[in-house]
Amino acid sequence: MTADTAVNVAVIYYSATGNVAEIAREIAETAEKAGAEVRLRRCAELAQRSAIEANPRWAQHAAETADIPVAVPADLLWADAVLFGSPTRFGNISAQLKQFLDQLGPAWGQGLLKDKVYSGFTSTASEHGGQESTLLALTTSFHHFGGIVVAPGYTHPDKFADGNPYGTAHWSGGGNTRPVDDTTRRAARVQADRVVKFARAVKTA
Ligand SMILES: Cc1cc2nc3c(=O)[nH]c(=O)nc-3n(C[C@H](O)[C@H](O)[C@H](O)COP(=O)(O)O)c2cc1C
């Protein structure tokens, strides 16, 4: 690959109990395989320690991912494409991802977020459960950035299996009884490949 076609991809996510983190890893690995330079970053935790410790799975996931660097605005400035992931919270994104987005005012004011490729992914406990409203809410910010929204759509047979044209969306089940499976992983790969393809096209245009 020449320097002209090299693209930087940031995968920035929040995950309490690990489902969104698993999708983020799949997307990061796929983007790397597609030739991108990748930064996998987690959003800073905002919840009180007592809330985390009251949920063993949340506490375990927090401990297991402590070594993943926390996302900073500079990660966006570096990136040609950014994939954001969040669990669905009452049909919307998590406070932790929103807090990250809310740090981007100065970069936005300088026009530094525009012309990048953006895409999103999520996980819910219920089937559907607000996945589409979450992804569309996230997309609103992409428009404010002046970003190029790259949704997976139904561009690949695997997208008819996970069924969400707005982004990769997993159904984790109540009590996390449905771990991230092949259906979700295949959808994540479609999305990552598509984002890298368009980021490269934009960069070389
Ligand atoms: C405050 C709160 C709100 C939630 N809202 C929804 C919701 O609207 N729909 C849904 O299906 N699941 C909802 N969930 C469940 C999570 O979205 C779901 O468990 C998700 O898979 C967790 O992802 P994670 O393992 O990456 O943290 C909610 C969970 C919490 C704690």
Automatic annotation (TrEMBL):
Top-level EC class as recorded in UniProt: oxidoreductase
GO terms of molecular function: NAD(P)H dehydrogenase (quinone) activity
Record-listed E.C. numbers: 1.6.5.2
InterPro entries assigned to the protein according to its UniProt record, in alphabetical order: Flavodoxin/NO_synth, Flavoprotein-like_sf, Flavoprotein_WrbA-like, FMN_Rdtase-like_dom
Keyword Oxidoreductase: yes
Domain Flavodoxin-like: 9-176
Pfam families: FMN_red
Keyword Oxidoreductase: yes
Record key words, sorted: Oxidoreductase
Highest rank taxon of the organism: Bacteria
Family: Belongs to the WrbA family.
PANTHER family tied to this protein: FLAVODOXIN-RELATED PROTEIN WRBA-RELATED (PTHR30546), FLAVOPROTEIN-LIKE PROTEIN YCP4-RELATED (PTHR30546:SF23)
Protein name per its UniProtKB record: NAD(P)H:quinone oxidoreductase
Naturally occurring in which organism (per UniProt): Streptomyces bambusae
Gene: wrbA
